[in-house]
Amino acid sequence: MADEIINNNTQDNNDKDRKKGLIIKIIIAVIALAVVIGGVFFACSKAGKGDNDGLDDDGDTYGFETEVVTDENGEAVTDENGQEVTTEVAVKYEKDKKGKKVAYKIDENGNYVTNANGDKVTVPVNDNTTKFNGETANTGNTVTTGKFTTGEPDDTTGTTKKNAESTKNGTTAFSGDDIVPETGDSGTEVNFSADDTAVIENMLEVPYLYLSSYENSDGVPINIAAHTAVWMASRDTGDIEDGSGSKTFPAGPVVLNLFKYYGQTVIYFKAQCNTYATGANAPISYSRENDTFTITGYTAKTHNVTINSIEDLGNNNYYKVTGTVKEANDSGCKKKKVVAILQKNKLDPSLGFSVKALKWS
To answer: Which helix (H) or strand (E) holds 37?
Structure first.
């Protein structure tokens, strides 16, 4: 009887030990799983701390879409032939929850246009565009979406070469299928007015613009875009020279200004601005926390450009501009010549052109 009791006690102890061991194994497994899951989340968190952290719109993309003109009653305005009158409006592209491209109407400062209820106004997207991948709506040689016309034509521009033909009336009609000419292309020399020539020279004299050459299909180099952002901001504020003090700008208008100057979105400008600006000595920095750019001074001129010839490339108001380059203010600029592809447009009426490609030599 005593032996039986001892055996029963021994069995009970063994059962308890097995249960205790099983519980310990379960606890260890749970802890191990928690460590693995925690490691995954930590790795994801670490991966998110790079240049693109939180910057789902670091390549803010802008363009133009067609909108029907309406009267005070919200009815479509028609012309003498009964056709609806349309206009082109600036938009910012974003993705909805399903990944579909949405065009939000913006004003001249890059702010969203809202309706009476405070909702952002959307504009139908022309489907004859490049596919939107969440980073940029512009790939390859595509300029923007839709069509862009200006209604009443501009006055004919004037002269740089007496025997050359005057440039056409009107401005650019954008098309998503446009192929931007390259700097090696050639056309027919044309006349430009003194005012237009001065505008082009000013655009090509953006400080340190000579640091990079590019064709439109390459995308705009961020190092020169950083200086362009500073130059465009200086035009907005009226401050041109160094020593004007630090100024902070909302990110939207700065990126929109780059779109106006280059006629295409500068990809990843916010995400990579600080890195490239430092290397190019551009006085601009981006704050992800506040989504703002700070400019610490407006750079003095680094070079002068004199336009020698302008050629009409016969394709949607594209022109090839050839000019002579000279150093200014001991900047170290050693370039002697610039070839630029420009498109006449009204992305920014005070400019009237966008710079599509550059070749410095």
So the answer is: helix 2-47
